[in-house]
Design a protein that fits this description.
Layout: H1 3-8, H2 49-57, E1 63-67, H3 73-76, E2 80-83, H4 88-96, E3 109-112, H5 120-133, E4 139-142, H6 144-153, E5 156-160, E6 169-172
Parallel strand pairs: 1-5, 2-5, 3-4
Antiparallel strand pairs: 1-6, 3-6
Length: about 180
């Protein structure tokens, strides 16, 4: 039953009709094969309806966190989207094709700092961010436990199948200008 029909109360028992909270979103099962194509023009096929809704619902300053397979995503996420078997660079590319980065802050992206130096994945993030924005983007490096804290406060977490270590990225949503 559509929401407006429930609200209008035109059917018996409308007031008792259960409505799942938005935070109870279902992700594909771990063995789900994501579609190779989509029925929408110019929309990356990795962009599921659930992920599109989350990106649309986010407001200026909200953060989305893309995480590797080792990250405790289920514990940290308010809203969790799973992209099993998908690398984080591919997920970031799909999201950044639609997602405006915040240009009101010095660093609209952040990564989990690696104590052993700069991992190669950070170069991939720099390349993807620059391609999406048309210019270099400042990326902050933050401590592991600070990263966990920010992930818990983020609007959503996208859990990828990425196996490279320290492949975690926070993106802050910007605005669309006329």
């Amino acid at each position: 039953m559509p929401y407006n029909a429930r609200r209008a109360g035109w059917f018996r028992g409308a007031e008792n009709f259960p409505v799942a909270p938005r935070s109870v979103l279902l992700s594909p099962a771990p063995d789900t094969v994501l579609p190779e194509n989509t029925m929408l023009k110019t929309i990356d096929p990795l962009m599921t309806g659930e992920l599109l809704a989350i990106l649309s619902d986010m407001g200026h300053g909200d953060e989305i966190v893309l995480v590797d397979a080792n990250f405790p995503a289920a514990r940290a996420a308010q809203r969790l989207v799973r992209l099993p078997g998908i690398g984080i660079d591919r997920a970031a590319e799909a999201i950044l094709s639609l997602f405006p980065l915040d240009d009101f802050v010095a660093a609209p992206a952040a990564v989990m700092a690696c104590p052993d130096g700069r991992p190669e994945i950070f170069d991939d993030f720099d390349r993807l961010l620059a391609a999406a924005e048309g210019k270099p983007v400042t990326v902050a490096q933050i401590d592991r436990f600070d990263f966990y804290d920010r992930a818990e406060q983020a609007y959503a977490v996208v859990a990828t199948g990425e196996r490279r270590l320290y492949a975690n990225l926070i993106l802050k949503k910007g605005v669309l200008r006329a």
